[in-house]
Amino acid sequence: MRKRRRSLSTSLALLVTVSLLSAPACAVEPKDRTSTSQQNVSAERARELEHLVRQDCGSCHGMTLKGGLGPGLTPERLASTDRASIASIILDGVPDTPMPPWRPLISETDAVWIADYLLTGRTP
Amino acid sequence: MNIASSAHRLGLILLAFVTACLPLNAEMSTLRGTGDLGIIIERATGSLLVFDSTRRATIARVEGLGDLSHASAVMSPDARYAFVFGRDGGLTKVDLLTGSIAARVVQAGNSIGGAISDDGRLVAVANYDPGGIKVFDTETLKEVADIPATCAKGRSKVVGLEDAPGRRFVFSLWDAGETWIADFSTPGEPRVTRLSGIGDRPYDALITTDGRYYVAGLFGEDGLTTIDLWQTPLAPRRILSGYGNGEAKLPVYKMPHLEGWALAGDRFVLPAIGRPELLWVDSRTFTEVARTKVHGQPVFAVARPDGRQVWVNFAHPHNDTIQVIDSVTGSVMREWKAGPAVLHIEFTPRGHEVWVSVRDGNVVQVYDTHTFELKAEIPARNPSGIFLASRAYRTGL
Q: Nearest residue of B to residue A124 by CA position?
């Protein structure tokens, strides 16, 4: 779990130490009601993926996923696309567009989790 | 009688005036300049911090600026106001002295930055949706012009909006491969010049500090396009064609930014797209003279104002690292992990210190650029862009 409220430190060394100490601290997975894919991803990984979607996918799709250089990824925009297709686009990208393949960085399980996350609109 | 009545009225007016001035006088007890102030965008919370770069401290937080992911800002000529461009089309005029919003409009659905005219009277915003630019009066934020980026596909997303001398704005059309110049030098409707054949999907651009060259980076091609704005007629010229040697691009997890381009001596340095490299370009001939292999795909390559060093940050998943390049040798002189998600780098006007935002560390770090000592860490909520008021005095920033 990423430590959110870090006390102010003027020491870079301390910052690094704190980062290292921020090991997974929360092992309690919230009861999932949305999809089976969600049970294959730990609560900690889910938080990391949510962060990835908002911050890094958000570079192009907007932090609130309403679009940017890339299209919006809200449930309404994705309504006609199924989970497997979305996961496949995430993993392999879209040739000749800026959408890169994320396969080098995330697993297939992760991609399916993200597809569900987008489709169920549990986005901010 | 009449005179007495007038005197009475004058007295009331004076009293009202003095009363109105009281809060102002209270503020005047902290009279100060703005040259060393700046703002830090807090992207996730729609807020920004006003900071004092001399004291290395924040002095105010301004909230209510909407979606600030990928937000940027330009500064008024008096260095008092920041014009902040939000992702959601919001344009907010922020008073650095009072730490408050002076004016705000939501002018489009999706935006990507803007520019301020050389006379400081006009602020222009680049919009993805609806594609085009809109131009506003900097005093009131009243709309002055709306220029839809029409093309064969309908309306294009606009990128790389820059200010050019002579009340002009230059910008590129992602979907159409065109660059347009909107000239506001005469009263009435702006004169718009369209240049086609810029290349496949320009994604960002820069303008040199002298306002002469506009350089657009291309996503769909191996190269960039430059336009010499001193030339008549204007003619785009392809440069660095084939810098990728025809090799497949690596996946681009974050588009590089050209605005922080770096002039170092007689050459400038640009982040390559889809390659972990910096490209060194002769500033007179626009030919490639060298290349530096770096830690990951560069996002910003920013020169210290004297050009002696170039500081580089990287795209995901290498975004915890900073590299400093020696601009004389072109080699990496320093490298360290600054923290999770280093997003932006802003030098003080003379370059003695640099402010670095570490988004996931919720901190902005201040380094001495000569000793590399970490001088301060400023808490901030998911900080992204950092913009000093001194940008007011540079074309293209």
A: B44
Judge whether B42 lies within some domain. Answer: no
Domain containing residue B281: 255-337
| CA pair distance B353, B380, nearest whole angstrom | 18
- Same domain for B202 and B310: no
Question: Residue B220 belongs to a domain with what CATH number?
Answer: 2.130.10.10
Is B174–A55 a contact, with Cβ atoms under 8 angstroms apart? Answer: no
Residues B267 and B238 grouped into a single domain: no
Total structural domains within chain B? 2
**How far does the CA of residue B321 sit from the closest CA of chain A (Å)?**
13
Domain limits of chain A? Answer: 42-124
Asked if B263 and B209 sit in the same domain, the reply is no
Chain B touched by A19 (CB under 8 Å): yes
- Is the Cβ of A95 closer than 8 Å to some Cβ of chain B? no
**B374 vs A10: CB contact, 8 Å cut-off?**
yes
pTM: 0.86
Does residue B2 belong to any structural domain of this protein? Answer: no
Residue B345 within any structural domain of the chain: no
Which residues on chain B are in Cβ contact (under 8 Å) with A66?
67, 88, 110
Q: How do residues B66-109 score in pLDDT, each as one tens digit?
A: 999 889 999 999 999 999 999 999 999 999 999 999 999 999 99
CB contact under 8 A, B220 and A10: no
Burial of A2 per CB tally in 10 Å (0-12, 13-18, 19+): middle
The answer for residues whose C-beta is within 8 angstroms of residue B372's C-beta and 6 or more apart is: B324, B334
Same domain for B264 and B241, yes or no, is no
Assess B67–A contact: CB distance below 8 Å, yes or no. yes
* ipTM here: 0.79
Name the B residues in 358-387 with CB < 8 Å from any A CB.
359-363, 365, 374, 376-377, 379
Nearest partner of B94 among B164, B160, B37, B53, judged by Cα: B37
The answer on pLDDT for A3 being more than 90 is no
Please return the burial class of A43, using the count of CB atoms within 10 Å of its CB with bins 0-12, 13-18 and 19+. Answer: middle
State yes or no: pLDDT of B26 exceeds 50.
Answer: no
Min Cα distance A112 → chain B (Å) is 19
pLDDT tens by residue, A103-121: 999 999 999 999 999 998 8
Q: Are residues B213 and B322 in the same domain?
A: no
Ranking A50-59, B118-127, B317-326 by mean pLDDT, the lowest is A50-59
Using the Cβ of A13 and the Cβ atoms of chain B, whether some distance falls under 8 Å is answered with: no
CB-CB neighbors (< 8 A) of A55 in chain B: 341, 359-360
Give me the residues of B, 188-247, that contact A with CB < 8 A: 203, 219-220
Same domain flag for B222 and B309: no
CATH of domain A42-124: 1.10.760.10
Q: Indicate whether B242 and B166 sit together in one domain.
A: yes
